Amino acid sequence: MKKILLLSSGCFLSKMLPQFDEFSTKVKISCLNALITSKHRETNDYVLKILSGQNENEKEELLLLLQHNIMFLRDPEPLIRALISYGTVSPHHNTIIVDTIINYFESFQNDRSSTLLKINFLIILLSPWILSLNFIEKII
Length: 140
Prior knowledge:
Blueprint: H1 2-16, H2 25-37, H3 43-51, H4 56-69, H5 76-85, H6 91-106, H7 112-133, H8 136-139
């Protein structure tokens, strides 16, 4: 039953997405929450659309949504890369982004393969950024 409901909501969302730009901020964030929950393949595209937009309220709401739901994304790595390169306008946004990345890493189990995955991700992707922020001890 749950799979049927998720599939139906995914189909419904696909029909709504062409009008995404016309939605209010609250509807956009709700739609993104539904996309994340259903692990929709176009989630990252719409997240990046808001991050590259001009509406600061939408960005704030999106960052808060991601902070609590990053571990439910279908493929979070490209989004994490985008968040790292995202030019924020406030220290508050930077704090939310760091918390989001920490939440993502904390969602892993503490087994050997997860630890190797974390270390690999940190070394390859985050090394220039980690050196400037000094938050590695929070993640591992």
